[in-house]
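How it folds:
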Amino acid sequence: MQVTEVRIRRTKKGSVKAHAIICFDDCFLVRELKVIQGPADSFPAKELSDGTHWDIAFPLDAETRRMIEQAVLAEYEKVVVEESSMATQKSRYQGS
């Protein structure tokens, strides 16, 4: 199983820095992964009426978790760099 696509949507909601969608083997999509600053879990969960969370999807072993985290974080860093570069270019254009 391979991560074949990662899409990042940045957000500014507390410790959540972005939401991710990942695709495995070009045939299975998982939405609502979170890029979180801190030790919180980042895999999809549903909040129950009593305030607890029920995990919807999660890796069963450390190797798979590491593979997913590396793919998502690499794409997140790429998006951050691209947005920073675009902001710098915009600032230069407006300053001229």
